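Notes from hallway chat w/ T.B., transcribed later so I don't forget. T.B. wanted the structure written out for a chain they're using in a teaching module, and asked if we could keep both sequence and structure tokens in one place. Agreed to drop them here.
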Amino acid sequence: MLNYDDEAAVYDATRGGVPRAEAAAVAVLGLVPAAAGALLDIGCGTGLVTERIAEGRPGLRVFGSDASLGMVRVARQRVGAVVHADARRLPLRDAAVDAVTAVWLLHLLREEGAAGAVVAQAARVLRPGGVFVTTVDKDAAHDVGSDIDDVFAPYLAPNPSDGTERITEYGAAHGLDVVGSTVFRGHGQGRTPLGAAHGVRRGYYASRLALPGQAAERLAQALTALPDPDRRRAEPAYRLLAFRRR
């Protein structure tokens, strides 16, 4: 698993930067009611998306939280109100905000019960009628029918923690009903074989791939052997689900 404290300094440059963040923010705001007064972005990372959510909706009070202190330090330079907190134990009172967002978070939570605990916390801090907006099926979005996907296929981990059905069930158990969805483009996220190999060696795909023993190196070598190793394959399209608190 990545050390996100160390990753904070290079995260934006390696994850599509501003274009991807702007696409995410526009999509999120399309699912957040205009009347919302306060929004908490959990797992906000460097705050690149959080900042654009705030800029895209003047008058909306936007806060962030992240479990990585390194990420929090970067995010505070963009969005002042960012707290260091585990999303499974948010330091907010019940019914504190009108919207909660979780962009590219739930797929990372492979520990049993972790994703469900985050959904439960989102429901707890939402006011009745508030919305929870989250990415789902994040890793599957990268399956674009490329030769990279073919090489990855034997190593895919089963039962992703952010599968639509699973997150919908968690939501229903905590008073959250699905009220909308949308997709947005993953600008700059079209993979090259060499970039994918580097990511495998760095541990970028820990939430997606099962790589025991020397499997990571075998996979990396198979990726570097693909034709046109510097050519980007198609970009992913990420999916957001919106839930309303009963």
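Follow-up for T.B.: DSSP finds ten helices and seven strands in the chain. Might be a good example for the class.
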